[in-house]
Amino acid sequence: MKRSVRRDIFEEKGLMPHFSSLAAALMAILYSGMSSAESYFNPAFLSDDVTKVSDLSRFEKGTNQAPGTYRVEIIVNEELVATQDMNFIAAPSGASIKPSAGGLEPCMDQRWLKRIGVNIAAHPNLSKLKPEECVDLVKEVTGAEVTFDFARQRLTINIPQASLLNAVRGYIPPEEWDEGIPAVLLNYNASGNSGSNGDSYYLNLQSGANAGAWRLRNNSSWSYSTSSDGTTYNRWKSIGTYVQRAIIPLKSTLVMGESNTNNSLFDSTGFRGARMYSTDSMYPDALQGFAPTVRGIARSNAKITIRQNGFVIYQNFVPPGPFVIDDMNARISSGDLEVTVEERDGNNQVFTVPYSTVPMLLREGRFKYDVVVGTFRSGNSQQSEPGFSQLTLIGGLPNGYTVYGGGQIAARYAAAAIGIGKNLGNWGAISFDATHAYSKLADDSTYDGQSVRFLYAKSLNEYGTNFRVLGYRYSTQGFHTLSDVAYKQLEGYDNQLEIDGNYSKVPIVATYYNLRYNRKQNFQANITQSLGEYGSLYLSGNQQTYWGTTRTNVMYQLGYSSGWRGINYALGLAWNKTLDTNENNRIASLNVSIPFSVLFGRRYSTDSLLDRAYATVAASRDSNGKNTVRTGLSGTLLEGRNLAYSVTQNSGSTSGGNVNLNWQGTYNTLGLGYSYGRGQHDLNWQVAGGVVGHADGVTFSQPLGDTNVLIKAPGAAGVRVENQTGVRTDWRGYAVVPYASNYRYNRIALDTNSMDQNTDITDNVANVVPTEGAVVRATFDPRIGVRALFTVKRGDNLVPFGAMVREETTGTTSMVGEDGQLYMSGLPLQGKFLISWGKDAGSQCKASYSLPKENLKQAVMVATATCN
């Protein structure tokens, strides 16, 4: 879409009368184009002297726009299917073309009709046409409609369902999938803390390279800490390295190196080897999967550390009160997560967040597989690395049934599983499976056992209830997992988890294991309930019992939140208990935020600066009787609302306060916090961002996702990207949009209102379809230069109305209006116009121009050009 020049600019320059005349003339031309094929437009209507009017015969037949190739959005049955170049031809005489079509109609051949799903076999006349011959879809397919909006460059097609193949809605053919450009990537996340008890620093680097369909990735971390007693810890650790590529004909993904198995049937484990599996995201409406949401309540300014298989996969600082972490990469978050909340006073919370998939269902005829061959891999030094292989198969049957099964084999372990799932329609979906396992533990004792599992998922939309996961598992006393067999001894602590880079001198109770206490019953729940205008409730939890002991592992969280006239409030309860201590840890919290506009008696409006500033009150109480009350101020600043701040003062058991700033910038995200208390102070910071190296140079960005889009708009500096907070093009006109959707259309749009007065763009929207892990390029063609309004003369006379003009250097075109007025944008300061108003040599001329550099700040320059 071409950027429009604001009306107030022309009024300020006194140019409106000229543009009004020009607009009237152009409307007359367009009106003539709407008339019948035999109509004739008399140039005398424009001027008494017809020599002052160019040859307008090209408008007589209604062909307002020149036939050719145009890049258009293609909408089929109200769904965007592509943004691509398409050939348009002049509409034949008698065609029912709307004025908005510009007298053009699309040339659609058989190949293109197959692309949009037309059933060629059902229409014999279509089969008789040559493959490259243009098809009149409206004539050949009864009930079909074709509409072209030239101004919006949008082609809309409606086809009756009976004339379409039975293709899945949302299908995007693989030939449109973009493997992306060769690129080198680096994602960094650094955090640090300096306080009374010492300093600690953490750096996570996710690096990689793309070449064609291949993706190379490495995940590494560095930890450094010094304590008040002089102890220093310094360690670099590689979490995993692998190569990956999509196998498109099989709709599968191949991974080789260090990665994780799927946990749909067996527990997720780390491995070093190869894995090949069906990829749901390659299918149009398959489940995309989900990452677990970690919730909790921090009593003070705390550090959150999340581990999986002994590796730190997430670390960040949070202010006091409830926190929600829902931005972890789904690839690394399958399986149980160990969450440590390190409070400022040293009283840490440690709990486990389980993660199970929804019932495994496939539509009829679908088939999925997952094959892994390699060695067991864990970040826990208490475990060995036995070789193993794993196979999972899932098939969709008629009547809503799904059957699945698989096996897992190692030197001292063998397991087989089989299950069935059923779509119950309005009653949701369930699955049931059973696993039999043979195990030989570290003391050479052997066991046989079984485990049965039940999963249920349902969204009761009419009641606002969503059972995201509701599951139950029962295991007999002799049932063990592959992870159990990998332990070198029957009892101990899992590596005594690292805290601030140091192995804890005191065993962490949450890491305690005892293989004699193997798992018995497990209950999982994740339920949300909408209460309409009265807010919403959520319940999540896990309860695990064991054979050989009455002690349990328990984690439950219950919360309620709502709002009224901009006032938000939330109640939260958390309860957890660990196997080793069997002690109950409970904490309750209340949080209220009130917009300042409400305090001042004004009506709440999200656009008001006062409504982006909140007074906050929060209170919490734990099972040890510690009470904390926090009051403070928080909000967002800047035009893009990308600077968040909070100031809090604590009273009660934990006195003190903290200040936090978080900025989401073009090239990174920054966080800074300071907290103080009784004889204690801490300063923490965090910086995260990404770097992409490509053929055109290096581009810095906000933290990268798994799949990313590189914007290329040469010369268009500082332009905002729509719906992307803080993302702008750099000084060269490049930017990175992170977290693109795999195998789906991603709409990338530049905000034309953020362009400077010397930048225009013909089309500010691009659509890309990236494969997993790709860096795809969205290219734009900005016109960088001056906007100017010329009065063009030829001798003592003005250049005729309707003359066509092309700037020699840039190729920019326009048309002369009344009184020789010519408006053009994207011009260099010096150039030459090629002007023609007829077919003979005497109806053409050239006009050189030169614009003063000191007038560059003007929105529109006014100048005169002489045509020779």
Your description of this structure?
The protein has 868 residues and is mostly beta strands. It contains seven helices and 55 strands. The strands form ten sheets. The chain has a 24-stranded antiparallel beta barrel. Strands 48, 49, 50, 51, 52, 53, 54 and 55 form an eight-stranded mixed beta sheet that branches. Strand 16 (337-342) and strand 17 form a beta hairpin. The longest helix is centred in the first third of the chain and has 19 residues, at 16-34. The radius of gyration is 33 Å and the shape is globular.
* Mean pLDDT score: 80
What Rg, in angstroms, do the CA atoms define? 33 Å
**Principal-axes shape call:** globular
What percent of residues are in strands? Answer: over 45%
* Oligomeric state of shown chains: single chain
Tally of DSSP helical segments: 7
Alpha-beta content class:
mainly beta
The overall strand count is 55
Question: How would you characterize the largest beta sheet?
Answer: 24 strands, antiparallel, barrel
Q: What is the rounded distance between the termini? A: 34 Å
The low-confidence parts are 1-13, 15-38, 286-291, 329-335
Helix content range of the residues, please? under 10%
